[in-house]
Amino acid sequence: MDTFLKAGQSCVQAVQQALAHVDHNQHLNVFIEVFADEAMARARELDQKVAIDPSSAGRLFGAIVSIKDVIAYRGHELTAASKMLEGYHSLFSATAVERILAEDAIIIGRTNCDEFAMGSDNRTSIYGATKNAIDEERVPGGSSGGAAVSVQIDACHVALASDTGGSVRQPASFCGVIGFKPSYGRISRHGLIAYGSSFDQIGLIGTDHEQIWEVYNVMQGQDGHDSTLVARQDFPHSESKDRPLRIGYLQAALEHSALQKEVKEGIQRVQSALQDKGHELVPLELEHFDYVIPAYYVLTSAEASSNLSRYDGVRYGHRASNAKSLDDLYTLSRTSGFGDEVKRRILLGTFVLSYGYYDAFYAKAQKVRRLIKESLETMFEQVDLIILPTAPGVAWPLDHEMTPVEVYLADIYSVLANLAGIPAISMPVGEDSAGMPYGIQCLGASFEEKQLIEMCGKLFAERQTKVT
Ligand code: GLN
Predict the structure, then answer these.
(1) What is the distance in A from the centroid of ligand 1 to the CA of 217?
(2) What is the pTM of this model?
(3) Which CATH number applies to 1-468?
(4) Which of 8, 360, 426, 434 could form a disulfide with 179 if both were Cys (CB 3.0 to 4.6 A apart)?
């Protein structure tokens, strides 16, 4: 019970405080919708329930949670920050949402994000960009920018978001908080709007690794609605590691030309500090590192082009009003409903799947993915975890012009974990000279979430600072 609430604090007090932070930070454009009355009513109900029977408190009693606008919550609007889904209200809740509600969490609102979770800075949202609370002239990262800032401003304990190629970890790094993506197959994707289905995973952002663990643990596990979930509920090798660790690092990642000097120096300082504490640093070579971005964007765009074909103007949300035929209806609805970045991905995805190009792009990218997965698996036979930067630099200015390819290349460090399906966390470890934070990313072996979170908690706990 005391994992979330402060000593003596009631749910009502905690929600009041969170809502005050929301009010105070309206200008940051964090929430698309705040469920203020609903959250207060639920807080009162939970307080009453526990006053009558203290033993009835659920495992997440008092946990205030924000949800990204790609996660379904029954009876609430769900738009993926796209005109295409404006006005759509979900008829069911995501399994993850149902599970946290069953354990007495309180949902405070729906957070802003890039359209259909495609982007790295929250600038593709139809609701406009979210601003970074540390420097309001800068992006919060993306696609889960609103989620990261909702944690930054103390509007919730934990934010639920999605991570297809770094969308939980990169904004966490840009905002100075923790971002955790579990292994593929741990948390049900039922009720998560699909982008790249073989990559998508619900992840969590917070400031306290124990709170993240609690919420994660409630959400994970098999669910009849998602056949890709693993059967194992256990965390097999999760004995607490007090011995010195073998920590791998990727040479190619640190030597990459995209890595900003101050971030590189910061990561190197962290590595020396770990060595001084008695851990062993093991240099590793990932042969296919140069291909991670092309492989990721070919595969996720292919999957997106297929997943987004369901938005046809007939079944969901936006429908063009001036169509004269069925074909017209599809074309006009999709043309006016999707933003430029989403269209770019659909076109790219359709191209790489088309006859004559399939083998050259899609099939080749699948092979690269397999090689990367196998290389990482071999590495985890030698090391306990692998560290690398979360992103090549800090949050960029809101008005900084970038080409799509420049934005894609900035995902160089985060897509690895999604290609391999392994768990990964970004822990805040430093700031550059302008005071902008950056994180270090820790990758763990498949399904070893518990061990990974515990190790990161021990290695980097002292850096868990809040910005208010
Ligand atoms: N920036 C990446 C992309 O646009 C990651 C997005 C995500 O993880 N949802 O694909």
Answers:
(1) 24
(2) 0.96
(3) 3.90.1300.10
(4) 426
